């Protein structure tokens, strides 16, 4: 069904976010260019929109447009554009964001999609989204070396990059992580870095359908709709109690720092009112199972720098974490350490189908609910 894109949060560089007035939008606002857009990739200061007709358009600190595109991926140092080549081939181009897509790219690379395997029930190769390349044997990093091969046995289906870490979902639904781990974002129970992709043992036996990397936190959604989340909780982005968002004026009687059974750092603060200790989670180095209100099942997830957005099977949107620029869509700038439904889409009788977060903003695709 035809739908529309909506945006909310930070737009201090004039990037398209609906009304675009001022530096922030606190409630979902329809994008002017939203009718024909099929993919959105948002960096901090600019956003790349890919239309169904294969056109990429930039909005914000970077501007410009180009045709013949299959996909685009925006980062502050690099704009990746995947252009259609002859036959199944594709041409990967890396541009400086301020180039307006004019002149010559910084570099280009021919990409041949992975061959279709005979036992592939779908009859077609799994083609991931950038920064994973269509060959599924390499990905692109915004920092040198830009082109990074992946071991063929990983059989990558999806790859997401955080500020310092990477998450990979393979064809069997297993999750691998590597890179920096100082905020627990790798999920291996330590704060150590990993140089190579390492299987997330805590999730073995569970089939994952989607992964998302925030700045320093990680989320995945299982095939059955469960959410697993880990990493840094500084702004409540894990939907676990965080000290920073504790009620102002709360009387603290005692404080002790220790480790939970699962290795997570916990700060217990006793409240004078009832004497019951309230656990505050600063870092969660193991995946934690997160329940949405009403027992809702999740199907899509995306992370900003310090916020998280999830789409449910029934087409509702829940957001939590850092909200300073309105990126949670609750008509305010409050940060939350619990999942809250974005009422705008419920009130407008809209069913959310997709969500993609920039570091400080959120883009949502929604369709009108079918008349019963």
Automatic annotation (TrEMBL):
Pfam families: RCC1. The keyword Repeat applies. RCC repeats lie at residues 173-224, 225-314, 315-368. This is RCC1 domain-containing protein 1. The keyword Chloroplast does not apply. Keywords: Chromatin regulator, Chromosome, Hydroxylation, Repeat. GO terms for cellular component: chromosome; cytosol; plasma membrane. Found in a complex with KDM8. Interacts (via N-terminus) with KDM8 (via N-terminus). It is found in: Chromosome. GO terms for biological process: chromatin organization. It comes from Macaca mulatta (Rhesus macaque). It comes from the Eukaryota.
């Amino acid at each position: 069904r035809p739908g529309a894109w909506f945006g909310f949060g930070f737009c201090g560089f004039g990037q398209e976010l609906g009304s675009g007035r001022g530096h922030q939008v606190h409630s979902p606002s329809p994008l002017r260019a939203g009718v024909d857009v099929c993919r959105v990739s948002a960096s901090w200061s600019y956003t790349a929109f890919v239309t169904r007709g294969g056109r990429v358009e930039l909005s914000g600190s970077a501007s410009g447009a180009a045709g013949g595109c299959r996909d685009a991926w925006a980062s502050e140092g690099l704009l990746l554009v995947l252009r259609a080549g002859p036959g199944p081939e594709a041409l990967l181009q890396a541009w400086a964001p301020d180039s307006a897509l004019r002149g010559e790219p910084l570099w280009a690379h021919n990409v041949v999609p992975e061959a279709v395997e005979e036992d592939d029930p779908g009859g077609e190769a799994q083609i991931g989204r950038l920064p994973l390349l269509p060959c599924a044997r390499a990905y692109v990093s915004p920092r040198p070396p830009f082109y990074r091969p992946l071991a063929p046995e990983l059989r990558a289906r999806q790859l997401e990059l955080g500020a310092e870490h990477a998450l990979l979902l393979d064809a069997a639904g297993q999750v691998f992580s590597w890179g920096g781990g100082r905020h627990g974002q790798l999920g291996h129970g330590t704060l150590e870095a990993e140089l190579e992709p390492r299987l997330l043992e805590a999730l073995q036996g569970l089939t994952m359908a989607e992964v998302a990397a925030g700045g320093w936190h990680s989320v995945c959604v299982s095939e059955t709709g469960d959410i697993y989340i880990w990493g840094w909780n500084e702004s409540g982005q894990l939907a676990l109690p965080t000290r920073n968002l504790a009620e102002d004026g709360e009387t603290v009687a005692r404080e002790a720092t220790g480790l939970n059974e699962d290795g997570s750092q916990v700060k217990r603060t006793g409240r004078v009112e009832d004497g019951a200790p309230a656990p505050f989670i600063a870092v969660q180095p193991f995946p934690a199972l997160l329940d949405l209100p009403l027992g809702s099942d999740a199907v899509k997830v995306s992370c900003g720098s310090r916020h998280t957005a999830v789409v449910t099977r029934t087409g509702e949107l829940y957001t939590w974490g850092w909200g300073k620029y309105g990126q949670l869509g609750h008509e305010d700038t409050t940060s939350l350490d619990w999942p809250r439904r974005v009422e705008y889409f419920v009130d407008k009788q809209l069913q959310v189908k997709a969500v993609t977060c920039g570091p400080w903003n959120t883009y949502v695709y929604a369709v009108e609910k079918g008349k019963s």
